Amino acid sequence: MQQMFDTVLVANRGEIAVRVIRTLRALGVRSVAVYSDADADARHVREADTAVRIGPAPASESYLSVPALLEAARRTGARAVHPGYGFLAENAEFARACAAAGLVFIGPSAEAIALMGDKIRAKDTVRAAGVPVVPGDADPRVAEAAREMGPPVLLKPSAGGGGKGMRLVRDLAVLDEEIAAARREARASFGDDTLLVERWIDRPRHIEIQVLADAHGNVVHLGERECSLQRRHQKVVEEAPSVLLDGATRAAMGAAAVEAARSCGYVGAGTVEFIVPGGDPSQYYFMEMNTRLQVEHPVTELVTGLDLVEWQLRVAAGEPLSFGQDDVRLDGWAIEARICAEDPSRGFLPSGGTVLALDEPAGDGVRTDSGLVEGSEVSSLYDPMLSKVIVHAADRPAALRKLRAALAGLTVLGVPTNAGFLRRLLAHPDVVSGAMDTGLVERDAESLVPVGVPEEVYAAAAAVRAAELAPEPRGGWTDPFDVPSGWRLGGTPKPLAFPLRAAGAEPVTVAAPAEARVSPGAVRVTVDGVTHSFRRAGAWLGRDGDSWHVADHDPVAAALSGARHGGADTLAAPMPGTVTVVKVAVGDEVEAGQSLLVVEAMKMEHVISAPHAGTVTELDVVPGATVAMDQVLAVVAPREEEAG
Q: What region holds the Biotin carboxylation domain (predicted)?
């Protein structure tokens, strides 16, 4: 048996790099972080024993650069590489390159990665092992098979997962367009645009089984995780165990997952994902196997008491599992919420900015896995997930309550996040009852996003402005004429009022409240007899997981800007990102709703369409251009009949 590694390079960034470093430190193993220019001061760099710069900000020139990663390992004397998830974690060529360089890849073999990474081969392999699979077909018969099966069908990239490139098609009239879009995203994300198509099961549950296998032939499963709360095929909340499964179904699915792992000679920690009809959980179908650690692995850790990163390291070092299937016990309930840089009030578009204030929940049964520190720069270059809040309690109702309370205590100011949205989602009646499916979030998302800005938010912002105007006392005395009290000669005092504008809302003029207390980092105001407390930083206010950017509004400057850019004729970037496609040129005639440009951020595409029929009079970007949120991209002047 090999000895535990003395130095491990973590080939990732953000919260997963911090998570892996935590276990390495607990085991007394030296950690090596890698970073791009954009991450020079990131948390994972600060917490590692050693850190190596590997290239410029774009992932293709840093975190995806195999030569740079191998050179970093050589320079620091690392004996093994932990890939985390994302980037190169499921890249068979990277695993082979590590082996060729004399490094241990902390994960399965390159052959297992390649087999299970090809969804077509994976389905054939597990089907041969007796594992049920979803009906479907693959290239070159994707379009033909989709039409034969009839809608609804799901298009999926063969080479990758994580929801990227997936398209649910309910109308065959748009099939060709959706196939083209899926291929484009698959090629951009995985370098391979091969697709497969599967029968879509309406109102399905997404349940996955954690497996752990060593190099000595031992394979166990560690129970299931329910991952049905998803948006755009991306998981947002996960829990263990699942309220849907009874003991017999859990055992059957676990056994199927073990057989799937055995069928490819799997070694390490992996996850076998199943689609399950909510009305009949005994009819489960294999979807795919993720040959890496999962984002949601903490919920399994909390109900089993096992550190999965530690077992990845031990298995990679040649140790056998010290326990068998009968030794695995599930204790209590764990739920995880993914905190992402996205703005629910703007259709969940990716967000960015500088973290001005940060409060992360902790305490008994509460865990936060995070890559953030105050001052962190969140850009559109990488995945939008910032952190995860995970709780453990004796039962599911207690875990739901604990997670809602933890999210209420989370503050991220400077970057819009989905924390408040998730807190409301966890109170949804169907979530509380356990009657979930993978379409629930999409169906009810709108009802979970508050309309407008609460009155007390504006009051708090006005109180902060008033406090900022107050003079500093000099020698214990303040000149009453310096106090912004609204006092007027020979008249009734008029309350101070401030023109304000919250992001995405119309401007308002708000009087400073009579009852307010402003202190560094906080503000408390009383409105209609109710007192409200907020965390504050700059123009940002936060409460119960929600945040608002409330800035001063200059109506003259706003009017000039609107006139200059053509008002409703202007097409602006809805998010910070990169222009990937430009379909028009200045002078082109376009129709209302016609696709003009595509902006990509955090691996998500957003199509910019013409607001009306007209002529493109300005085009300020080219493919590859980096744009800021609300930056003008183009102007479409309406046709005379449209304008009239």
A: 4-446
